[in-house]
Amino acid sequence: MMICLGIEGTAHSIGVGVIKDVKEKCRVLSNLIKTYQPEKGGIHPREAANHHASYIAGLISDSVHTARVDFSDIDLVSFSQGPGLGPCLRTAATAARALSLTLEKPLMGVNHCVAHLEIGRGTVTGCQDPVLLYVSGANTQVIAFAEGKYRVFGETLDVGIGNCLDKFGRGLDLGFPCGPKIEELAKKGTQYLGLPYSIKGMDLAFSGLLTAAENYVRQGKRIEDVCYSLQETTFAMLTEVTERAMAHTEKQEVLLGGGVASNKRLRDMVQTMAKDRGAHFFVPSRDVCVDNGAMIAWLGFLMYESGLRMSLDESLINQRFRTDMVEVTWRD
Amino acid sequence: MTKKILYRGAEAEIRLSQYMGKTVVQKQRVNKAYRIEEIDRHLVAYRTKEEAKLIAEARSYGVSVPLLYDVDLTKGAITMEYLAGSRVKDILNGLEESERKRICFKIGESIARLHNHDIIHGDITTSNMIFLHDRVHLIDFGLGCKNSELEAKGVDLHVLMEAFESTHSKYAHCFEYVIEGYSKKFQGNASAVVKKIEEIVRRGRYR
Question: What is the pTM of this model?
Answer without folding.
Answer: 0.86
